[in-house]
Design a protein that fits this description.
The complex is a heterodimer of chains A (230) and B (256).
Chain A lengths: L11 H41 L4 H15 L3 H11 L9 H27 L2 H9 L4 H31 L11 H12 L3 H28 L9
Helix pairs in contact in A: 1-2, 1-4, 1-6, 1-7, 1-8, 2-4, 3-4, 4-6, 5-6, 6-8, 7-8
Chain B lengths: L3 E12 L2 E12 L3 E5 L6 H8 L7 E6 L2 E2 L2 E4 L2 E4 L2 H8 L2 E4 L11 H11 L5 H14 L15 H13 L5 E5 L7 H17 L3 E5 L3 H7 L2 E6 L2 E6 L1 H6 L4 H11 L1
Parallel strand pairs in B: 3-10, 3-11, 8-9, 9-10
Antiparallel strand pairs in B: 1-2, 1-4, 4-5, 6-7, 11-12
Helix pairs in contact in B: 3-4, 3-5, 4-5, 5-6
Classes of the chains: A mainly alpha (230), B alpha/beta (256).
Chain lengths: 230, 256
């Protein structure tokens, strides 16, 4: 029994059906971790991208260094660091929060590069027109650059959304009860790993396919020339 | 000399080893319509880009409206201009680009009203009213709600002109405004520029390859070659009886 659901070991099919609700509870945690992690990655990544494109070397360089450091160290190391080291300094977060934060930080290094590429892809002609019209740097960024960068960014961000989703099982090592962890517990207790793990694979496939389809739809409906301003 | 609204004083511009402007001296009077012609790479567009503050200078001084453009007088010496100074100076100028450079994600209306609202602080209603007048002026009164990609090149360039005018510049710079257009669309843009030249006291500086047009609308034509003004004069002087061999060669090549 787990989360109040009993399993039925009479045959594999009944077993699968009986543990499905349990796995769905874990899947819900996986989805929440994905969404929160992705949100952190989007916000922190934008922040890093802006810092990296700063004209001052004293801002751009540290930002680049941080990005490189995050990107070149394993997610698991970062996760352990947040989970075991932060509490020593009085910062105690629930395991789920720590995990989502670690995912978000790791992926912010990647999303910052996506932002940067998207921002750079908005042509010099656009910046020059904005300058000739005396638009401020902030205005140029928010009204000229960002709306045109968004459609170029969406596909790559979609890929990272799926990647984050597939990295959520890493959080199981800090006790987060996401889908894989739940499946493992079921296996530990019933000595049948085949059915729960297969189900996890199938459910993952469903999640990633749905997420990819969502991104594709978004990509199709976004005007290529940018978010329209009327 | 006091009525010169633009004055280049021994201006030098280099791109790496290439000297694009070689101690250029050049003046434009208030209200004057000046065309700049010359072979590609002669520094014609660079003159406009320096004026629009899109390109810095490596020597000399540029004066606009009696003030140095790329410098600031502080404690008696000429220092490189601050962004605040450039912003203030830039408000006197407007530019029409060869590739139009419209904002593709904005409607025609928004393209024209964006800067007046954000920079001049105009109310949205007022900016739209003025934009409608400008669209009327360029013959696009019924296209306000469209996006640039829904317009022809000629229409896009006319929006470009309206957008520049919306900032009420006293100097309007045209950087080969018809070079990117299909031949059959050149006429409609030239008509608009011609009407502006006739009806407004704007100072106009036009880099162009349209010789006939330059001849019609200009008070003065300057022939640029290798970063210098090789010859200048009234359109009649320059086109019918150029005194320099280089000018003759160029005109012969382009008019044939």
């Amino acid at each position: 029994m787990l989360f109040g659901f009993e399993w039925d070991l009479t045959n594999p099919l009944n077993f699968a059906i009986s543990i499905l609700p349990i796995l769905l509870v874990g899947m819900w945690v996986t989805i929440q971790a994905t969404v929160l992690g992705f949100f952190v990655a989007l916000v922190l990544g934008l922040f890093l991208a802006v810092l990296k494109s700063a004209r001052s070397r004293f801002i751009a360089w540290p930002a680049r260094l941080v990005t490189e450091f995050i990107r070149d160290t394993p997610l698991l190391v970062q996760l352990f660091f947040l989970y075991y080291v932060l509490p020593e300094y009085g910062i105690v977060l629930p395991a789920f929060m720590t995990g989502a934060l670690a995912l978000g930080i790791q992926y912010s290094a990647y999303t910052s590069e996506v932002y940067r590429a998207g921002i750079e892809a908005v042509g010099r002609d656009q910046r020059e027109a904005a300058r000739a019209l005396n638009l401020s740097a902030a205005n140029t960024f928010t009204h000229i650059v960002v709306p045109q960068a968004v459609p170029r960014i969406v596909p790559a961000m979609g890929n990272y959304l799926v990647s984050i989703m597939k990295d959520v099982p890493v959080l199981s090592v800090v006790t987060v009860l996401e889908m894989l962890n739940v499946a493992k517990i079921i296996g530990d207790r019933t000595f049948d790993y085949l059915v729960p793990l297969s189900l996890v694979g199938c459910l993952y496939l469903v999640m990633t396919l749905v997420a990819s389809a969502g991104v594709r739809v978004l990509d199709t409906y976004l005007p290529k020339q940018g978010l329209p301003l009327k | 000399m006091t009525d010169a609204i633009i004055r280049f004083d021994k201006v030098v511009k280099r791109f790496g080893d290439l000297t694009v402007l070689d101690e250029l001296d050049f003046e434009v009077k208030k209200g004057e319509k000046v065309s700049i012609i010359g072979p590609s790479g002669s520094g014609k567009s660079t003159v406009l880009r320096i004026l629009m503050t899109l390109e810095g200078i490596d020597g000399g001084v540029v004066h606009v409206d009696g003030e140095p453009l790329w410098h600031e007088l502080r404690e008696g010496s000429l220092l490189p201009a601050s962004e605040a100074h450039l912003r203030r100076m830039r408000s006197k100028l407007g530019m029409v680009f060869q590739q139009f450079n419209l904002f593709p994600h904005m409607t025609v209306m928004r393209n024209i009203t964006e800067a007046p609202v954000k920079v001049l602080g105009l109310g949205k209603k007022e900016a739209q009213l003025r934009a409608e007048e400008l669209l009327d002026l360029v013959g696009l009164a019924d296209q306000a709600k469209k996006f640039p990609h829904q317009l022809s090149g000629g229409q896009q360039q006319r929006v470009g002109i309206a957008r520049a005018l919306a900032m009420r510049p006293s100097i309007l710079l045209f950087d080969e405004p018809t070079s990117a257009l299909d031949p059959e669309l050149v006429g409609e843009v030239l008509t608009v520029i011609g009407r502006l030249a006739e009806e407004h006291d704007l100072t106009m500086l036009l880099v162009t390859h349209e010789m006939r047009f330059a001849r019609e609308i200009s008070d003065r034509v300057c022939f640029f070659d290798r970063g210098q003004i090789r010859e200048e004069g009234t359109p009649d002087e320059l086109f019918t009886d150029p005194s320099e061999e280089r000018t003759r060669e160029f005109l012969k090549a382009i008019l044939d």
